[in-house]
Amino acid sequence: MKFFVDSADIDAISELADIGLVDGVTTNPSIIAKSGRDFKEVVKEICGLTQGHVSAEVVATQADDMIREGRTLRTIADNVCVKLPLTLDGLKACKTLSSEGTPTNVTLCFSPNQALLAAKVGATYISPFIGRLDDITLDGMELIQDIREIYDNYGYETEVLAASIRSVNHVKDCALVGADVITAPPAVIKNLANHPLTDKGLAAFLKDWEGTGQSI
Ligand code: E4P
């Protein structure tokens, strides 16, 4: 399973990349706004931190304008992936950009049928939002499972990029149902390494080692 970082925080992405945990990065207009930085500048910097895809989202709502914005975003770096909303215009733009060889990420997916459409227009990734469905008491993980089954039924190559991940349990459940990629905030990815028994066991090992008076 690939790990993407859902962030525009350069330090946080670099820290995870140094450990070897970054296969790509996703951003959205809210994440860019939060960074307070110039969109193209920050995307270019992130693209230098990973060889994987870095999703940069269009903000136009008409297909022709989305295509124009997508082509502009692609000039930032070779690993830019153009992110498009799951609307009819977004699907149309996805079809055109994908046929030009541009990697595409269709975002704001909340139903299996939406995911089916994204696969039909050749999206590189579909981004179903788990947390936002859970927020309204629906089952985000069921959506990931349904999309996995539908894509497998027909051999679609579009990768299931589980998004809106809020917890380590979301990551585990995505791995169990076969999501191709998860994108999560840096804190969630770091938290995957935590276990109280690991901390307790390590403290005991180090104490016992200290008692031997040896060094390595
Ligand atoms: C994915 O690409 C989105 O940027 C992101 O996962 C949305 O997460 P949120 O619902 O926590 O804002």
TrEMBL record:
Coiled coil: none annotated. It holds the Pfam family TAL_FSA. Its EC number is 2.2.1.2. Keywords: Cytoplasm, Pentose shunt, Schiff base, Transferase. Its main location: cytoplasm. InterPro entries: Aldolase_TIM (IPR013785), TAL/FSA (IPR001585), Transaldolase_3B (IPR022999), Transaldolase_3B/F6P_aldolase (IPR004731), Transaldolase_AS (IPR018225), TSA/FSA_arc/bac (IPR033919). HAMAP family: Transaldolase_3b (MF_00494). Transaldolase is important for the balance of metabolites in the pentose-phosphate pathway. Belongs to the transaldolase family. Type 3B subfamily. This is Probable transaldolase.
